[in-house]
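Protein 1 of 2
SEQ + STRUCT:
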Amino acid sequence: MEYATRTIYSEYAALKTTLGIIEVKKKRPRDPLTDQSDRLLIVIEAKEEPFWTVKHYQVGQEKIILHLVSDSMMDRWILMNENRRAIHWIEDGMVLFERNTFLLDLRQRLRNFSNDEQRLQLSLAFAKLLRRFEDGRSLFLQEEHQDAFTQIHHALTHLARLSVLEAGIHPEIVLWKQVRTLDLEIYKLHEELVSGQESLEQRIHLVIIGMEHLIQSKVLPGTLLLLQTMQQRDEPWPFSELMEHPNLQALKVDLGSIVGFLVRKGYIRSVARPTKGVGVEAIAYEIA
C-alpha cells in the first residue's frame, strides 16, 4: 500500500515547483478530515495564482484523494479562514516531502500568526458576526423564529471564532471544544440556544440579550483594522474609498454593516458634503 501511495505522489516530488507533500490518514469511518477517504495526499505547489484541484484514486480496497493546491491558495485558506480542514492537514499530517523548510515554516506560522493576520481574521469574524446577528434579530422581531434561530446560531459561531482568535489561536473544526476552555460565557450561551428548556422564542430572546453585551466587548479587536485604516488621514472617507482601500478588500461584502454599527455606537461619525445636485449631500465618515 505504501508503495502504491508513493507512485501517486512521486511525480510531484520530482517537480521543482513542489514545496511540500502531506499525508493524512483517516482516524474514523467516513472521516470528514480526509473527505471520507482512507487517506488524503496534499501537494502544495509554488504558483502565483490561486489554484486547487482534486483527484480520486483507488488502490485495492482503499480510496485515496489527492489535493493539488498552490501556496497562494493555501495562504488564502489560512488567512481568510476559508478551509479550516487545511489547518488540521498542516498541523497533524505526516510530511512525505518538503523543499527546504516550507512545511516547518508553515506550521510555525499557524502557531504564531502575525499581528496583521490576526487583525484581519478578527475583522472578518466580527463582520460576519454583525451581519448574522442583525439578520437574526430582525427575523426574531418578525416572529420568524425558525429562521431567526439559524441566523443567531451562525452569529454565535462567529462570536466563538472571534474569541478563539483573540487568544492568538486558529479556530478549528472542533470549535466548541476550544471555546469551552477559552470562553465559558459564550459556550454557555450556545448551550442555552441549542439545548435550553425554554421555548424556542424564549431561548432566542435570552441569547440575543446576552450577545448584545458580548458584541460590545468585541468592538475594538473586531474593528481595529478599519479604525486604523481610517486614521491614515484626517480627511473624512467616502464609503466608496473605504471599499477600495487595499487593507479592506476582504471586508467589502460586510463593510456597510460594520460602518453602520460604528456610527450607531459613536465610534465614527458621518459627515455631510454638498454635491452638484440640489438638496443632495454626499456622506463621508471619520473617527469620532
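Protein 2 of 2
SEQ + STRUCT:
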Amino acid sequence: MHSEPLQPETTGQATREVTWHLRLAYDGGAFHGWQIQPGQRTVQGELQDRLRRLLRAPELKITGSSRTDAGVHALDQRVSFTAATPEDLDPERLRYSLNRWLPPDVRVQDAAIAADGFNARHHNAGKAYTYCLCNGPKPHPLWARFLWALPAPIDLAAAAAAAALLEGEHDFASFGVNPKRELESTVCRLHRVEVIPCGDLVCVSVLGDRFLYRMVRGLVGYLVHVGQHRAAPADVLGVLAARQRSAAAQSAPAEGLFLARVFDHDADRLDYRPRVPPFAWGGLEP
C-alpha cells in the first residue's frame, strides 16, 4: 500500500502547459519491460498511470529514452511528457509526490521543466549500458539477481580483444533485433566497449549513439562466447559482416543489464566513466 500523493487541486486553479523531463531508476526484475503491454506490469504503465491521476489528465502519454526489455534495470532512464500543470507544482513537489505513490522498485531521481518540444527518446547524445557477470565461483547472494553467473571463468583478455573490434560504426544486425523492420538502418556507432574486471565480477560497459533492440545483450553474449574460447576475437568481424542474428552466439540474460546513463550533450559522454558494479551503494546517482 502506497501513500496518497500530494495531489494538486486543479479545479478552479490556474494551469500552464509544461514539458517535463524526469530521471528514473528502477529494478526491472518484476517488470515486463519499459513499454506498456496489455495485461502486463511495465514501468511506463506504472508511471503513466500515476501521472494521469496526479495531474487529472486521463489522456497523458509519456515517452522514455530507452525501451528496456523485461528484467532489465535502469539507473538513468529519461522520461518526457507535456501536460497542463498547476502553477504551484514545481519540480521538487512533483518528484516528491510521485515517489510517495510509486511502488518500491521505481524511483524518480530528478524532475525538471524542459524546453517546449523536448522528447526523451530523440533528444539525447547517446546512452551507456553496463552488463554485470560473475566470473568467480559463486556470486554474493545479495547481488546474485543482478548478475549473469557464468559456469566457469572466461578469458578476459580474449573478450577485451573482441570488444575493441566492436568499437566504431558498424552494421550490428547480427547482434540486435529489428522487429517489424521498424528501423530503416541497423548501422550504429559504438564509442567505447570495455571489459572491466571488478574482483569476482566483470562489467561490460558499452557507449553508443543508438542501439538496436536487445543489441547489448547480443554483444555481451558473444564476448562471453569468445572468452570461453569458442571463437577467436577476430571472428567478431565475420559475424558483423554476416548481418544475420544466427551468426552470433546466444544473448546474455536480461538480469545483468543496466541502462547506466543517458547523455544530454556530447561532452557528458566524453567525460563518462562507468560505476562498477552499478548496484554498489551510491550507484543510483549517475
